[in-house]
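Hi R.,

Here's the chain you asked about this morning:
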Amino acid sequence: MRLGLQFPIFNVPHGPAALARTFGRTAQLADEIGLYSFWVMDHFFQIEYFGPAEMDMLEGYSALSFAAALTRRIKLGTMVTGVTYREPGVLVKTATTLDVLSGGRAYLGIGAGWFEREHKGLGVRFPPTKERFERLEETLRIALQMWSGKVAPFHGRHYRLAETLCHPMPLSRPHPPILIGGMGEQKTLRMVAQYGQGCNLFAFAGVEAVKAKLAILRGHCERFGRDYAAIDKTVLDALWLTRNGGPDSLSPAQLVERLHMWAEAGIDHYIFSARHTPDPAFFELLAEVVPQADKLKTAVHPA
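And the predicted structure, written out as tokens:
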């Protein structure tokens, strides 16, 4: 099982002047102990789950580019970009730039978007749900066309591109993996099967709910002739590690038990958010878990 870390809180001790050092060191420690992936939310205001909107928040792709310069192996992505925030061609070019400058380590994490307040606050149009999903599907098609090397017009209902030119091309082959966030059965999971290389589900929904979503994803894969095993099945969780565990934390052994549970449920890639300060003790404990996670095999459930 692969492990990933999400950095969700940019309010750090000593304020913005210390943010580059704190964020950068966190990315470096995640890389050094062998985590597979490092993620930031793609928001412009903080979301309610983590705190008030007025908390510090960095733009996602700029932050990942900074992390890319400080790391060597770890994969980098947004968890996830709202399709409404950037025009599709600009978004694909941005993700391509991250991939090239990181040496082929970028993900394109994407979803339909949901945070209406930041749209209104910053003057970004917030279409109805149906239209956001239509825009998501067109953006996925545009990304695949740009990354195919085909330079041609794209004419969709919402987007019209005169020429899908993308140079340099990504270093990732055939392109940066597309991870689509959300648990919608008829649209989101269908688009994962049709266009994506990964899905992101929510741990708080519970193991049985996640297993049910994966069964639906498998059905979509069968309809589109996709290899279900080739889809990166990810789940997003939140945790904190201490040596002996406690009411609000897990011990390394307890985390390994949790990883066993998710592997048995069919998850390939466990992504978690944790407190923002790069506490060396946290990463020392996490380093004990990484080799054990590497040995876990994802269960393959029958259709």
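The chain is about 40% helix and 15% strand.

Let me know if you need anything else.
M.
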